[in-house]
Design brief:
The structure holds two protein chains of two kinds. Chain A is of the alpha/beta class. Chain A has 13 helices and 16 strands. Chain B is α+β, with helices and mostly antiparallel strands. In chain B, the strands form two sheets. Chain B has a two-stranded antiparallel sheet with strand order 2-5. In chain B, strands 3-4 form a two-stranded antiparallel sheet. In chain B, a hairpin with a 5-residue loop joins strand 3 and strand 4. The mean pLDDT of chain B is 92. Classes of the chains: A alpha/beta, B alpha+beta. Strand 9 of chain A pairs antiparallel with strand 1 of chain B, so a sheet runs across the interface.
Amino acid sequence: MKTELMSANYAAARAVMSARVEVVAAYPITPATTIPEQIALLNETGQWPGQFIRVESEHSAMFACTGASSTGARTFTATSSNGLLLMDEALHWAAAARLPIVLANINRSVSPSWNIHVTHDDSMSKATTGWIHFYVSSVDEFYHTIIQAFKLAEDERVLMPVMINADGFVLSHTLSTYDYLEPEEVDKFLPPYKPPHWVMDPENPVSHGNIVFPEYYMEFRYAMHEGTHNALKVYEEVEREYKKLFGKYFGGPIDCYRCDDAEVVFTSQGSVAAEAKDAIDELREEGYKVGNARMRMIRPFPVDRIRELGSRVKGFASFDRSVSYGYGGPVAHDIRATMYNTKHRPIIKSYIGGLGGRDMTVSDIKEVILDTVKAVENGETGPEETWHDLR
Amino acid sequence: MPVTSYSKPVIGATGKTGSWRTFTPKIDYDECSRCRTCWLHCPEAVISLDEDGTPHIDLDYCKGCGCCAEVCPKKCIAMIREGFDEEESP
C-alpha cells in the first residue's frame, strides 16, 4: 500500500488496475471522461493489461460490458448523467442477466438546463433497475469501494451489478490522498471471477435471454430481488475482510458519526455527507445533540439500520441532492416509508438542495439541521419538504 | 431454477414450431436443379441436403416463412395454404 495524491477519477482508473479488471468499454462524458482516458493511458503504457473497447455511445458501452461479463471477464465502465440515461436498457439487461459489472457514475445534472455539476437525479432515476447503489464521499473511499464492489457483485449470493456514485467535480476533479494497493496485494482479497451459472462460451454454447412467459418471468424477478437484498449481509462480510487485510473501513451501508446519543440525525448522500461532519462538530460545541448518518448504500435500502436509528432519535433531517418530481426527496421518502412499519414516529423532515452543483457549505447544513431541531422542539412536522436556499 | 434464463441449444426446445405455419412449402423435385439456394437462405435451418444436393424440409420446425420459395431461381417451391390442396390454395 502506498499513499498517492490524485483526483477521484484518476484513482478510479487505478482501482481498475488493482482489481485486475479484464475489460473496460466506455464512452467519454464530462465529468467522467478522465476515468476512461486514464484507463486508456494505463493500457497503452502497459500498466493495465486488459482490453479497452472503444464504443460509439454509452448504450453500446454497457452492452459491450454485458457481452464481456457474459464470457466471465471482470468488467468495468464509467459514465455520467445523460450517458447513464442512454445506458438505461442495458442497465436493466445487466441486472437481469446477473452480470457483476461495476460502473462508476460521476453524478452530474441532467439536461436541460445544460449543467455539468452535481445533482443526483441521474443515478436516483436508476434505483429500480436492480443495480446496487453506493454513494461515496472521498477519493480514498471511491478507490477502495470499487475494489470491494467486485467482491460484492461476484458473490454467488448476490451476482448483481454495482453502481458507485461520486459527485461531479467536487470529487471527480479534486485532488486528495488515497492509499493505492498493488494488484498482488488485492489478489489476497479478490480471486479471479468464475461465473457460477451461465457463461458465454463457444465450446459449450447456450442461448441466453430466452422467452420466459407468465409461468416463470416473476420467479426470475424474485431471484433478482433476493440477490440485491443479500448484498446488505454480504457487504458486511466484504468490509470485515477488507478491514482485516488493509485496515480500511468506511462505515457499512450507513456511516454514522456522533449518532449514539443524538436526538436529530442528518442523512445525505455523496460529498455533502462528509462536509456534514464539520457541521455536526460545530453544533455539538453549541450544545445540540445531533449526529451524521452518511447514506453509503441506497439499494438495497438499509432498512434495519434506519429502523434501529429511528427507534432512538426524535428527528431525521433528510437531505436529497435530487428530486422525484411531483413527490419529493427520494431518500427522504424511503426513510419515511421504512419507519412506517414500526411503532416509532420520529419527525422525518425532507430537504432538497445543492442542485446543479450549488454549494452546500457547513453553514447551509447547520441551517438544515437546526430547522429539524426546531420542528422536534415544537412537535410540528411542517411542510412536506423544504427546498433549501431556493431563490 | 437458474438465476437467469438460458438454455442449451437442443432440437425442439420450444416445442414443434412448425405448428405456427400458415403456408407450407412444397418442392417440385422434377424442376429442382439441386442448386442449394433454399438450403443456404432458410432462416430456421430446417432444410437438409442429400449428397446430390436434393433438399428436404423438416415440417416439424418449418414456420412457413416462404424465404425458400422467394429465393428459388427455378421458382419450383410452391407455398400451399394449410388446409388447401395445391390446386385450390389461395
